[in-house]
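Appendix B, record 7
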Amino acid sequence: MAAKSANLFVRLEPDVKEEAEKILDILGISASSAIDIFYRQIILKRGLPFDVKIPIEKPVAMGVLSEEELNAELEKGYADMLTGRVRPADQVFADIRRDYGI
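Structure tokens (predicted):
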């Protein structure tokens, strides 16, 4: 294995760096190791190791919806509930705690 002697300088938004480093710390991985892993995955995948695309739907900011739009969103949620496309909140929160080591 070659000695690690190349440098990479990156400018990030401070909050992005801080949040990512908190997660890496929980995982026990340094930022340098994470970047090394990322670069190795680029090589293995011969491209980015994840999809980069514009989301089909952007998240809904409830505070900017008209009354009709809000009612339409509520109807979607109600329809999901009727068809069983729901999960109990405690299960969702347990999954989040498990995934983020909280």
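Remarks on this record: The two ends are 36 Å apart (CA to CA). The first helix runs from residue 14 to 27.
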